[in-house]
Amino acid sequence: MKIAFFDTRSYDKASFTKANQGGADGSHPYNYEIDFRDFKLNENTAMTAQGFDVVCVFVNDVVNAEVIDVLKKCGIKLIALRCAGFNNVDLKAAAAAGIKVVRVPAYSPYAVAEHGAALLLSLTRHIPQAYLRTKTANFNIDGLTGRDLHGLTAGILGTGKIGQIMAGILKGFGMKIIAYDPFPNEKWAGETGATYVSKDEIFRQSDVLSLHCPLTEETKHIVNHDTMKMMKQDAVIINTGRGALIDSKALVHALKHGHIGGIGMDVYEEESKYFFSDWSTDIMTDDVLARLLTFPNVIITGHQAFLTTNALKNLADTTLENIKAFAGGEELVNEVK
Ligand SMILES: NC(=O)c1ccc[n+]([C@@H]2O[C@H](COP(=O)([O-])OP(=O)(O)OC[C@H]3O[C@@H](n4cnc5c(N)ncnc54)[C@H](O)[C@@H]3O)[C@@H](O)[C@H]2O)c1
């Protein structure tokens, strides 16, 4: 199989090269021909897939109908997502083109949930500010008053793999767990002591609202002007899901007017232009992102929640297994339909 690998970072190249050679002991090599490219797949780059069998893509590659049309003409037979979310792929267009789509449904839900917890503690205990102060020998702690998480209510929006682990971590802090999911998992709730509530109630009751649902037409801007107005004024939001779960302009408004207490976000609605690159010496034209970066009660990380050694190994192993199954005409257990 010849694989055109888009939006490559150094850690992708390292983990996929190792997995392709058969892992640590080299026992089960795939030996696929992988062409690592540092640019994204989009309307301008799709034609570079000519001569390959598979495109391997990540969260900010554009796989819309126009791109899929070009991929089909290039002879691409498989779109292999090296991520869980598939909101960037036009599945109808892929099906119409006869191109299969596979993904990695779980590579380390712990990595993402633990990063969410890191964002939460950083936010509630002002760790970025404290770090910057002590780096310059400023040990003044004025303005760094935090909040006990113990006894507060955590709202888990989406109780799938990551949401359940996040709930377990927050329960460990002594928080009360409430949840919203259109497909409630009552068995899990019973075992954890979590309580399912309505969508409105999760916004009303949560002191910490953590987003773990996929981005769909239904969940786009699920956090918006109206839902943020329902929230407690000192409530914080943690978003390790997808940027467009939150209406970013409404978020700036809510932060400016004190409708919410803060946010820790690993994803941003318009992240595709900026995230995964160094823009520190450029002029930022995204005024919403620029404004968000100025708030003391906003912490942004650049879509790194997945980035652990465990997750990278699992991503590479599962992606190459998906491709192997396709090449061998086997059942595609991780197909997205
Ligand atoms: N930041 C990162 O690095 C990173 C990494 C992996 C995944 N993610 C994101 O996290 C999301 C969750 O991942 P997961 O593995 O837990 O997925 P999952 O499929 O196991 O769980 C998603 C849950 O969301 C629920 N859901 C669906 N529609 C909903 C709605 N309208 N309201 C509330 N809940 C709804 C589903 O019923 C399911 O229980 C992914 O879709 C992806 O977007 C982010």
Spatial shape:
globular
Low-confidence segments? none
Rounded mean pLDDT is 96
Using only C-alpha atoms, the radius of gyration works out to 21 Å
The hetero compounds bound to this protein are: nicotinamide-adenine-dinucleotide
**What share of residues is helical?**
25-40%
The strands making up the biggest β-sheet line up spatially as 8-7-6-9-10-11-12
State the distance separating the first and last CA atoms: 22 Å
**What's the SSE pattern?**
EHEEHEHEHHEHEHEHEHEHEHHEH
CATH architectural category of the largest domain: 3-Layer(aba) Sandwich
Q: Count helical runs.
A: 13
Counted up, domains total 2
What is the name of the CATH topology of the largest domain?
Answer: Rossmann fold
Give me the CATH superfamily of the largest domain.
NAD(P)-binding Rossmann-like Domain
Please describe the biggest sheet, giving its number of strands, its sense, and whether it closes into a barrel: 7 strands, parallel
* Number of DSSP E strands: 12
Question: In percent terms, what proportion of residues is strand?
Answer: 5-15%
State the CATH class of the largest domain.
Alpha Beta
- The secondary-structure class comes to alpha/beta
